[in-house]
Amino acid sequence: MIDYGILRLVWWALLGTLLIGFAILDGFDLGAAVLHPFVARSDAERRQTLNAIGPVWEGNQVWLILGGGAIFAAFPALYAVSFSGFYLAMFLVLLGLILRPVAITYRSKLEALGWRRAWDWIFFVSGFVPALLFGVAFGNVLLGAPFRFDDQLNVVYEGNLFGLLSPFALLAGLVSLSMITLQGATWLATKTEGPVAFRAKLAGWLAAIVLLAAFTYAGYWGSETIDGYVLTSAVDPSGPSNPLAKTVAREAGAWKAAYEARPWTLAAPAAAYFGALVAMLALAFSAPLVAFIGSSLAVGGVVATAGFTLFPFLLPSSADPNHSLTLWDASSSQRTLTLMLAAVIVFLPIVLAYTAWIYNTLRGPVTEARVADKDDYPY
Question: 184, 236, 228: which is closest to 207 by C-alpha?
Answer without folding.
Answer: 184
